[in-house]
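[agent] plan:
  1. take the single chain provided in the ticket
  2. run structure prediction with default settings
  3. attach structure tokens to the ticket
  4. add a short note for the reviewer (M.T.)
[agent] executing step 1
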Amino acid sequence: MQTKLADFIKNSPQGQEADAILRSCVHCGFCLATCPTYQILGDELDSPRGRIYLMKQMLEGQSVTQKTQLHLDRCLTCRACETTCPSGVRYGALVDISRGIVEKQVKRDLGSEVLRYTLRKILPNPLLFNTFFKVGQVVRPFLPQKLKRKIPVKPDPASAWPAERHARKMLVLDGCVQPSLAPNINAATARVLNSLGITLIKAENAGCCGAVTFHLNDQQDGLNYMRRNIDAWWPLLEQEGIEAIVMTASGCGVTVKEYGHLLSHDPDYAEKAENISALTKDISEVLLVEIESLQQLVQSRLELNQSKLSFHSPCTLQHGMKIRGVVEKILMLAGFDLTVVPNAHLCCGSAGTYSILQPELSQQLLKNKIIALESGKPDQVATANIGCLMHLKNGTLTPVKHWIELLDERIIRPKV
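[agent] step 2 finished; step 3 output follows
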């Protein structure tokens, strides 16, 4: 694709990156077949190719309108198009750059501004989020059914965090909403790693990965969250001999793995961010390396009965981090009978704050995903991201858990 970027951006780092991405697109249209919003709406402008044309026009200096904003807002940033693209177009990065520009040029209505501001301030702040979450649980019985389903009655309590201290150590990101909504996920991760001779450590001052605010177009605030995490982790990395930074939410994982890219133009953080990204591993990647030890553990403790399980692979796992088939391999090793999930590449509609900002599209995607997950009549549904987990729970009565919790229950603390 030929480009001629406008003066306001062409010589900036973002402009040079956007120009390279645009030039890599060959208009082939393969992305249309895997774009969830195009499949639902059938509008070319709600496909990656159509949005690329809109972004190209904007970056070349044409006027930016609410129409451009609407079609970019509807994008889930699921990055399924990147998996399909034969030319390797980095569509997600282009959308991030373009949304930041649109946000400065197109004014939103007051209601939208207030909602986005509220999400940016509450979701990344564990203290604020936990306070509102507890209030929500108190008033839950009085809420409309639609809102009531979004607030868990009572999260599964966290299992005991292992007290052992092994020579091998890894860090874990607690995140922002996961400690309130599903506190057992990281505790289960610590138990599984402990059984393999690895101690999992929390960095007290680490918090939100930065994805929420960054993808709500307050990109500078998002970068500040990233810098804060680097500052929290760096002393431990220098002193503790940390092998990896473990992610149990794939949405956080894909973001932290991109710290090096996102902070590459910050002279104070670029090198540290690159090192952080290199050390960051999804928990499935960690266990894949330890697969032989895990297999020995399974053989010594595995119950004989099988459980039928559907696995929903989040977009951030399969398209963002390009980790495919790894969780499934581990679950089958642990004795789970995995069902076939049709259209497993498609988004469930959670997509960070998308389920709040685009509820109609999100609910259509959720309905389609639940039909696919339940087609094999599973006993349980597993996933790898807190946002997907909570979203899926709103659409089904089938139990939904993080896969690491199921692994923990299966081989570390089996039920009697």
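[agent] step 4 note for reviewer: The beta strands are 168-172, 198-202, 242-247, 280-282, 308-311, 337-338, 380-383, 400-402.
[agent] ticket updated
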